[in-house]
Specification:
Structural class: mainly alpha
Low-confidence stretches: none
Number of strands: 0
Largest sheet: none
Helix content: over 70%
Order of helices and strands: HHHHHHHH
Number of helices: 8
Length: about 150
């Protein structure tokens, strides 16, 4: 019981820093992305992570993997996370209730889904034929880009 009542284990510098970061980051996050939108942003984050994983695996399989190419994609990824924030701010300015935010975010999720499905197919992972047919143009574009990288 003495352990539970002791503040020595709770009031640590690490906990203080974590609380401070949370106190600053949460209002900024809500300002830029709005409230009650965490689920869709987590979905977008997961889709982007899966796209990176499948992209790395596909490029290693076709021997076009390059760490400098991967690092050059980091600004693109940050841009993908900035677009919903900009759309949310435009919604605030125009007085629309999330119309642009949700449109942009679902568009990014759809685009990322196409990319990760094509990467998974290129990596040789099992994909339903209907999905392969649906993302056929993306698969073709990625294969052509890989062939150009390989020829350099």
């Amino acid at each position: 019981m003495k352990f539970a009542l002791s503040l020595e284990n709770v009031a640590t510098p690490a906990n203080g820093w974590a609380a401070t970061i949370g106190a600053v980051a949460t209002p900024l996050f809500q300002y830029f992305y709005g409230t009650d939108r965490l689920d869709i942003l987590v979905l977008l984050f997961c889709m982007i992570c899966l796209d990176w994983i499948t992209g790395v695996r596909a490029s290693k399989k076709d021997k076009t993997y390059s760490s400098e190419y991967g690092l050059s994609r980091i600004p693109r990824t940050l841009f993908l996370f900035a677009l919903p924030a900009i759309a949310n701010l435009l919604d605030k300015v125009m007085g629309t209730p999330g119309f642009l935010f949700y449109g942009v975010t679902f568009g990014l999720i759809y685009h990322t889904w196409n990319s990760l499905a094509a990467n998974a197919h290129r990596a040789g992972w099992p994909m339903p034929k209907s999905i392969v047919n649906l993302v056929g143009s993306e698969i073709k574009a990625k294969a052509e880009r890989a062939a150009r990288k390989e020829n350099k």
